[in-house]
Write a structure and sequence with these properties.
Helix content of chain A: 25-40%
Domain Bacterial bifunctional deaminase-reductase C-terminal (chains A, B): 3-183
CATH architecture of chain A: 3-Layer(aba) Sandwich
Strand order of the largest sheet of chain A: 5-6-4-3-7-1-8-12-11
Number of domains of chain A: 1
Structural class of chain A: alpha/beta
Number of helices of chain A: 7
Protein name (chains A, B): Deaminase reductase
Pfam family, one (chains A, B): RibD_C
Oligomer: homodimer
Largest sheet of chain A: 9 strands, mixed
Number of strands of chain A: 12
CATH class of chain A: Alpha Beta
GO biological process, one term (chains A, B): riboflavin biosynthetic process
Organism (chains A, B): Micromonospora sonchi
Chain lengths: 230, 230
């Protein structure tokens, strides 16, 4: 059965990139890219990712298996507009997705068909619609929310996310673009509960997978009051 | 050899308590306490913690072993003023530390000696001094930075932290007091690198332990440029 999943590489302090780069300067020289490349280094060094990009080399290890598993599980993608725009040139004629990608955007644009099975469909009527279209296109496989963080939060906020996997990279960045920012629409007395379903340790990155549940009121704990030992 | 360590329970989105409660209202009724009790629930349910508090019951499981291990490893504690003030009444005549506690504060106060080996020494000349005094008092065991988050950040920022353990609780709070906030004094092009040394999975909480290294410049990754397959 199709699940809606999100995987994101984050620093130990929760950033998936350095501070947001705006304007016309060179993105590659920006602090945003420096943070982004640090937290995704384990991906770029994975053989399975490099093969998808047509690059030689890389490591054949558990991280490479996890990248391959993510590609295999996804029957369709949902993506934010900024990520899609930023990737359009570097991904080239044969992007690594090999599946339909639904881009959430306010700007209408004609569908873009690339080689190798990847297409980009620009969805202007909201994240729920993009997820629904991706579900219909996924052929029974999963819908992967590719990012960025703002889109992952929108999907989480809308209660549409079934599974979240954080790839926690052992670095503290101190500043940057946070996956979890203050726009989840949670009341101060509730939380979104999750269940850990898989932990894969590795020196480069710790993979933490969760099933996402509903919002739940936070309950007080009585700290043992009334249960003193005799 | 004495290490300076910090252990903190945090939500998946990095909060160790709900939004900070200021003023005279009932802390137990605040959003801060609701978040705090959610992320520390695994501690209050651990038999080893309950025994230290004189409470009956609790679970004898891997989480209880980790609480016991933390108590055993600490020869002295460093603590923030707000945590020390907040704990003074609930911890009672025999606080759970059973070791010297050095409280970083601006307000001079006479040393407080409690039963069971716990004392509180109020240090007014800064975090470095408090850590040095705790080292001298630790008798070869570790110095544990007990919290709160602001103090952990000060110790990390000063380059004094050797080991960090996050107890990651499977809940998203959305808002609250963040362990990692924007006062680490890191340049946008550098990070604090860490090495994961232990991962202990459990349905209630994932224990992630790291050795802390120095600040390191973030390097760009060329994303495979120049290494295309023939």
């Amino acid at each position: 059965m199709t699940k809606v999943t999100a995987q994101l590489s984050v620093s130990l302090d929760g950033f998936y990139a350095g501070p947001r780069h705006d304007g016309d300067g060179d993105w590659m020289a920006s602090a945003e890219s420096h943070g982004f490349f640090r937290v995704t280094r384990w991906v770029t060094e994975a053989m399975s990712w490099r093969e998808r990009q047509g690059f030689a080399g890389g490591r054949q290890d558990v991280n490479s298996e996890i990248v391959a598993e993510s590609f295999d599980a996804a029957g369709a993608y949902v993506m934010g507009r900024r990520m899609a725009d930023g990737g359009e040139v570097p991904w080239g004629d044969e992007p690594p997705f090999r599946a339909p990608v639904f881009v959430v955007t306010h700007r209408p644009r004609e569908r873009l068909v690339r080689q190798g099975g990847t297409s980009f469909t620009y969805v202007t009527d909201g994240v729920e619609s993009a997820v629904a279209q991706a579900r219909a296109a996924a052929g029974g496989k999963d819908v992967a929310v590719a990012g960025g963080g703002s889109l992952v939060r929108q999907v989480l906020r809308a209660g549409l996310l079934d599974e979240l996997e954080l790839h926690v990279v052992p670095v503290v960045l101190g500043t940057g673009m946070r996956l979890f920012d203050a726009d989840l629409g949670l009341d101060e007395f509730e939380g979104i509960e999750l269940t850990p379903t898989r932990v894969v340790p590795d020196p480069q990155v710790t993979h933490l997978r969760y099933t996402v549940h509903d919002r739940t009121p936070l309950t007080l704990d009585d700290r043992g009051a009334g249960t003193e030992k005799a």
